[in-house]
């Protein structure tokens, strides 16, 4: 099953299971079913629960916040995650603050889905990975879709959290198959660690045996796997890949034994350079494991650049598997 | 009815309405006094001169209705809950604070009453609440207070568009006091609020009166229509802010301030003209003193959870 189908199926189940959940966004109605078809079929099956909206990101997220405030639950689709900047006020100043600024915990079950990332030639305003701008906001959780996850469970976890959640969905993943039965490909296996909020661990034969740990969110999974394959076959370097379901809050402590064993850690993400999620993770790793690291944590991210539309220029800016290979090689000279 | 207010207050106003008006007036005055003594943290925005708006609206609202307030919301809160202790404790960070002292003057949640500190932010949220009410609790409405300056925010128009499109039970009350912090409305707004509301197909009413009975009679049927599914209603009160924006930041000329005072519902001479007014005025003043003394004697507030 492709990731897009898996997300779509999960949303169908969420709406079927709980009539208080509403899905809002632009162009969601059938037969179109959303720009990436993640909401396809929902409006036909649950007409009262799906609301197609005007082009008003700030307004839509505010309406969703109001629904959640009044006792409902809301899932918003931002057509391209780039547009979530228009809803920054509602996310940062209203929804995330409301859960605690009134002096007592307030439940605000709200998910803002953000199709993100480049690789499709959509150009500078339709290709960004804006996760880093939402890291460290009190009362706001940031998730990223991975091909290893049970997406029904993922939506359930976010709604149960009772605070606003952003869900980044790498658009490239939509067309890829989800991984099943613990098998990533012909070389690598995976399992899910309950620690640190369900981190997927991808390994070659024995998770205890690795030369290096790569921490990367779900949109990076295939590039990380390709890098791991190259490193193994060409350099005989074995990597352990950790894919967190939740990027923030993120506590590296439960993963420390795994990181300590290798002493070599790389963090890979598609956000452009500067003030990144990876830098936050690296800081945590350095604080806990300084002295047991062979080298400073290596950061892999896109260039500090707008994301060009032309394929060859876009490729130069965005993280490729070769960048991960290079980073790991530098960790293990 | 602009100039006949004194008479109305002394003769027609119920004790309940007059008591509430005076409670808000003396609460706000006391707050500025406490500010002067350095007892109020940060900033606070009083509604001096605008008290009659929430007092007029109070009986038009039921328990199931949501009220969204803004930064100038003490009167909105007191008109809904008549709880000066909780509000003052919130502003002073003392035990019994409505929001544990975390929210302060501008960020208050109590039951179906909520204020946010960002201009225009509450309108889309109020539309979302109205959407929920429309489907889950028909007959209830969401009312959002905004100032004239808030009409500069895009969120207002996104919300009005959706509210009109979906025929939401939303009432937007604009307290147009002619000045946004220090910027006169004439320097920050093109066209009119009425034209903007009508452009979205919203029903609109301009209220020049400060006569509480007249305001209620005029608004009651419009509120009912909104409850029945007629879609959003925008009400604009032409009102006057007597005090500064927050504490000592009044840039208006003496003449402008005098003009605002000329429109004040609180007739200083009324205290001598009407025995009832004089008595209730003194009672409200004394009560607020008691509230302030009691709240100031409380320990500092603690935050839940």
TrEMBL record, chain A:
Start and end residues of each Transketolase-like pyrimidine-binding domain: 1-176
InterPro entries assigned to the protein according to its UniProt record, in alphabetical order: PDHB_mito-type, THDP-binding, Transketo_C/PFOR_II, Transketolase-like_Pyr-bd, Transketolase_C
Catalysed transformations (reactions): N(6)-[(R)-lipoyl]-L-lysyl-[protein] + pyruvate + H(+) = N(6)-[(R)-S(8)-acetyldihydrolipoyl]-L-lysyl-[protein] + CO2
Protein name per Swiss-Prot or TrEMBL: Pyruvate dehydrogenase E1 component subunit beta
Enzyme Commission number(s) of this protein: 1.2.4.1
Source taxonomy: Bacteria, Bacillati, Actinomycetota, Actinomycetes, Streptosporangiales
Function (record text): The pyruvate dehydrogenase complex catalyzes the overall conversion of pyruvate to acetyl-CoA and CO2.
One of the GO BP terms on file: pyruvate decarboxylation to acetyl-CoA
Keywords from the named record: Oxidoreductase, Pyruvate, Thiamine pyrophosphate
Taxonomy, superkingdom: Bacteria
Cofactor: thiamine diphosphate
MF GO annotations: magnesium ion binding; pyruvate dehydrogenase (acetyl-transferring) activity
UniProtKB/TrEMBL annotation, chain B:
InterPro entries referenced in this protein's UniProt entry, alphabetically: DH_E1, PDH_E1_Alpha_Subunit, THDP-binding
Tagged with keyword Oxidoreductase: yes
Cofactor: thiamine diphosphate
GO MF: magnesium ion binding; oxidoreductase activity, acting on the aldehyde or oxo group of donors, disulfide as acceptor
Top-level taxonomic group: Bacteria
UniProt keyword annotations, A-Z: Oxidoreductase, Pyruvate, Thiamine pyrophosphate
Pfam families reported in the protein's UniProt record: E1_dh
SUPFAM superfamilies the record matches: Thiamin diphosphate-binding fold (THDP-binding)
PANTHER family reported in the protein's UniProt record: PYRUVATE DEHYDROGENASE ALPHA SUBUNIT (PTHR11516:SF2), PYRUVATE DEHYDROGENASE E1 COMPONENT, ALPHA SUBUNIT BACTERIAL AND ORGANELLAR (PTHR11516)
Full protein name: Pyruvate dehydrogenase E1 component alpha subunit
Organism name: Nonomuraea polychroma
